[in-house]
C-alpha cells in the first residue's frame, strides 16, 4: 500500500523539523562558545576563539578529560567482552533461564539513572569502598553493558546456527567454534556495541554524579558549572565534547565503508 | 546438541549476570535495608523503625512524587502523538531517509543530556537565541520562557523523544502490509486502518516506548533543574537533597524505594508482556 505523494512530502518535512528540533540547542551552545563576552546575550556582538584557547591551556580541563577517557575506555572494553557472551545467552543458545535472563537485562535500562547512582553510592559505602573514578566504571557498566548486549543480540539473532553445527560436525571443539565461527560473525555487532558503549559512557552524567567521589567526569563538571557559578568554558567544553563524539562516529563509519570496499574488491 | 546449548547458554550468561548481581541487585537490596533505618544514620547496624516512610506523608514528599508522575505521564502522551507520524514514516514510507533520521537521532543521544538542556536554556532564556534576536530585529521583548512547569515537560519531551520514536517505529514495522492492504480492500478508510489495524498490531512497540518514557521521565532531574529552575521540586530532586544537603540517607533511601517500587512494578509488568524474540527478529 503506497501512501500518496503529498503524505510522503509532509512526513519528510516533519522529519527534517524533528532533526532541527533535536539539534537547535547545540546551535545555541555553538554560538555561545565563540562569543567574546563573559556574560552571554544574543545577538552576539563580537566573536572570538579565546575560550577555546583557555580550555586548551587549563589543567583542570586536562584532568577531567583524562578521567572521562579512562572511564569510557575501560567501560568499552569490558562491555564488548561481556556483550559477546551475554548476547549468545540472550539470543543464540536455548537454555533454561533464557527468558529470565532477557528480562533481567532489560530492567536496568528501565531504571532512573540518578536513583541507580545513589543506590550504588550506598552499596559502595556499606561494603567500605570509597568512590573514585573506578567506581564510576561499575556504575556505567550497570546501564551500558545491557545496552551493548542488546546491540550484539540483534546481530546474534540474524545469524544461522547451522554454520556452528557444521563446524562442530567436522570435529571442531567448542572453543574453536566460538573463536573461528561465532566471534567473526558477531564482530560487526561487537564493534558497534563498543562504539555505543564508549559514546554513552563519555556523555553520561546521571550515573557519574554520585559515583565518582572526588574525581569528576566532563559531563559532571559541566553540570556543576551550569547549576552554580556559570563559566564561559561551559559552552566551549560542551562543543568540544560533542565534536569529539561526532568525529569518532564519522571515523568509524569511514573505516567501515573503507573496509567493505576492500572486501568487495577482493571478492 | 540441546544439552550443549543449555551448558553454553548458562556459561555465557555468567559475566553479565555477575555484573548485574553485584552492581544492580545488591545495591537495590542495600537501598531497601537503608530505607527502614532510623533517621540520619549512615550504617545498617541499627534496629529498623521505618520512620522515614512516615516522613513521606508527613512532610509533603508525596507532592513531589505526584508532580514527577504527572509530568512524566503528560510528556509520554505528548511524545506518543509527536512520534507516531514520524515512526510511521520511518517504518513504512521513507526509504533512505529512515537511515538519515536514525543516525541523526542516535547521534543526538551521544550528547550529554545536560549539554542539550543547557542549549535549550541558552535558546529560550531572556536575551537568548530566540528572544534576543526577536528583540533586536523587531523590538518586541518577550518574558523569559524558562522556569515554569510547561518548560519542564518540554524538556522531558525533548530528552526522551528517541526512547519513544525507535520502539514505535519497530512496532509499526511489525504490522504486516497484507493486513493493512486487506483492510483497505474491504473498504476501511485511513482512520479505520489506523484504529483497527496499525494501533493494535504495533502495541508491543507502543508499550515499550511509553513505558520507557514514563519510567525515565518519572525519575528525571536535570530537566527541572536546568530548565525549570526549581519552580517544581521533583522526586529525584528530593532524593538527591536528602542524600547531599540533608545528610539523611534513610530518608533518601525510602523515597528511592517508593519510586523504585512504582517504576519496577510497571517495568516488570511491561517487560513480561512482550516477547523479546519476536520484537528483535529471531529466526524460527
Topology:
The complex is a heterodimer of chains A (about 270) and B (about 280).
Chain A: H1 5-33, H2 50-57, H3 59-92, H4 98-109, H5 113-126, H6 133-157, H7 161-169, H8 174-203, H9 206-209, H10 218-227, H11 233-266
Helix pairs in contact in A: 1-11, 3-6, 3-8, 4-6, 6-8, 7-8, 8-11, 10-11
Chain B: H1 2-35, H2 51-58, H3 61-93, H4 96-109, H5 113-124, H6 129-138, H7 149-173, H8 177-185, H9 190-201, H10 203-218, H11 222-226, H12 235-243, H13 249-273, H14 276-279
User: At the first level of CATH, what is the class of the largest domain in chain A?
Assistant: Mainly Alpha
Topology-level CATH name of the largest domain in chain A:
MetI-like fold
| Total beta strand runs of chain B | 0
Task: Tell me the strand percentage band of chain A.
Answer: under 5%
Q: Would you list the SSEs of chain A in sequence order as H and E?
A: HHHHHHHHHHH
Determine Rg of chain A (CA atoms, Å): 23 Å
Q: Tally the structural domains of chain B.
A: 1
How large, in whole angstroms, is the Cα Rg of chain B?
Answer: 23 Å
CATH C-level of chain B: Mainly Alpha
> How does the major sheet of chain A shape up?
none
CATH topology of chain B: MetI-like fold
Extended strand count of chain A: 0
What percent of the residues of chain A sit in helical stretches (DSSP H or I)? over 70%
Number of helices of chain A: 11
Structural class of chain A: mainly alpha
Class based on secondary structure composition and strand pairing of chain B: mainly alpha
Number of domains of chain A: 2
What composes the largest sheet of chain B?
none
Shape field of chain A: globular
Amino acid at each position: 500500500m503506497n501512501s500518496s505523494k503529498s503524505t510522503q512530502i509532509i512526513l519528510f518535512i516533519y522529519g527534517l523539523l524533528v532533526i532541527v528540533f533535536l539539534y537547535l540547542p547545540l546551535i545555541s551552545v555553538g554560538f555561545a562558545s565563540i562569543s567574546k563576552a563573559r556574560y552571554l546575550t544574543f545577538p552576539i556582538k563580537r566573536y572570538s576563539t579565546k575560550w577555546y584557547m583557555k580550555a586548551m591551556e587549563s589543567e583542570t580541563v586536562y584532568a577531567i578529560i583524562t578521567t572521562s577517557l579512562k572511564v569510557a575506555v575501560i567501560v568499552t572494553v569490558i562491555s564488548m567482552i561481556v556483550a559477546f557472551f551475554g548476547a549468545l545467552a540472550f539470543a543464540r543458545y536455548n537454555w533454561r533461564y533464557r527468558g529470565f535472563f532477557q528480562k533481567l537485562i532489560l530492567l536496568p535500562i528501565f531504571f532512573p539513572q540518578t536513583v541507580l547512582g545513589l543506590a550504588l553510592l550506598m552499596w559502595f559505602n556499606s561494603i567500605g569502598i570509597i568512590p573514585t573514578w573506578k567506581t564510576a566504571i561499575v556504575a556505567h557498566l550497570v546501564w551500558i553493558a545491557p545496552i551493548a548486549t542488546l546491540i550484539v543480540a540483534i546481530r546474534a539473532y540474524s545469524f544461522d546456527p547451522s554454520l556452528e553445527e557444521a563446524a562442530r560436525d567436522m570435529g571442531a571443539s567448542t572453543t574453536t567454534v566460538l573463536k573461528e565461527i561465532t566471534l567473526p560473525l558477531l564482530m560487526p555487532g561487537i564493534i558497534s556495541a563498543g562504539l555505543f558503549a564508549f559514546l554513552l559512557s563519555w556523555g553520561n552524567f546521571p550515573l557519574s554524579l554520585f559515583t565518582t567521589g572526588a574525581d569528576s567526569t566532563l559531563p559532571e563538571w559541566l553540570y556543576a558549572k551550569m547549576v552554580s557559578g556559570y563559566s564561559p568554558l561551559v559552552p566551549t567544553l560542551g562543543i568540544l565534547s560533542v565534536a569529539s563524539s561526532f568525529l569518532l562516529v564519522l571515523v568509524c563509519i569511514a573505516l567501515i565503508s573503507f573496509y567493505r570496499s576492500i572486501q568487495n574488491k577482493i571478492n | 546438541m540441546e544439552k550443549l546449548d543449555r551448558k553454553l547458554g548458562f556459561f555465557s550468561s555468567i559475566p553479565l549476570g555477575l555484573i548485574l548481581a553485584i552492581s544492580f541487585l545488591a545495591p537495590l537490596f542495600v537501598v531497601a535495608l537503608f530505607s527502614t533505618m532510623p533517621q540520619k544514620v549512615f550504617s545498617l547496624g541499627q534496629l529498623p523503625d521505618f520512620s522515614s516512610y512516615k516522613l513521606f506523608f508527613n512532610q509533603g514528599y508525596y507532592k513531589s512524587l505526584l508532580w514527577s508522575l504527572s509530568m512524566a505521564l503528560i510528556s509520554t502522551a505528548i511524545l506518543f502523538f509527536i512520534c507516531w507520524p514520524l515512526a510511521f514514516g520511518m517504518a513504512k514510507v521513507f526509504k533512505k531517509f529512515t537511515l538519515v533520521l536514525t543516525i541523526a537521532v542516535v547521534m543526538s543521544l551521544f550528547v550529554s543530556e545536560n549539554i542539550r538542556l543547557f542549549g535549550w536554556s541558552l535558546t529560550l532564556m531572556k536575551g537568548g537565541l530566540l528572544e534576543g534576536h526577536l528583540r533586536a530585529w523587531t523590538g518586541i521583548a518577550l518574558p523569559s520562557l524558562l522556569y515554569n512547569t510547561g518548560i519542564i515537560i518540554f524538556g522531558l519531551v525533548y530528552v526522551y523523544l528517541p526512547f519513544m520514536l525507535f520502539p514505535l517505529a519497530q512496532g509499526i514495522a511489525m504490522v504486516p502490509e497484507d493486513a493493512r492492504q486487506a483492510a483497505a480492500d474491504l473498504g476501511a478508510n485511513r482512520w479505520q486502518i489506523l484504529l483497527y489495524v496499525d494501533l493494535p498490531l504495533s502495541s508491543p512497540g507502543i508499550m515499550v516506548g511509553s513505558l520507557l518514557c514514563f519510567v525515565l521521565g518519572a525519575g528525571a532531574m536535570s530537566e527541572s533543574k536546568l530548565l525549570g529552575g526549581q519552580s517544581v521540586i521533583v522526586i529525584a530532586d528530593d532524593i538527591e537533597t536528602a542524600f547531599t544537603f540533608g545528610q539523611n540517607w534513610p530518608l533518601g533511601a525510602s523515597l528511592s524505594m517508593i519510586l523504585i517500587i512504582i517504576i519496577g512494578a510497571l517495568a516488570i509488568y511491561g517487560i513480561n508482556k512482550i516477547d523479546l524474540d519476536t520484537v528483535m527478529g529471531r529466526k524460527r
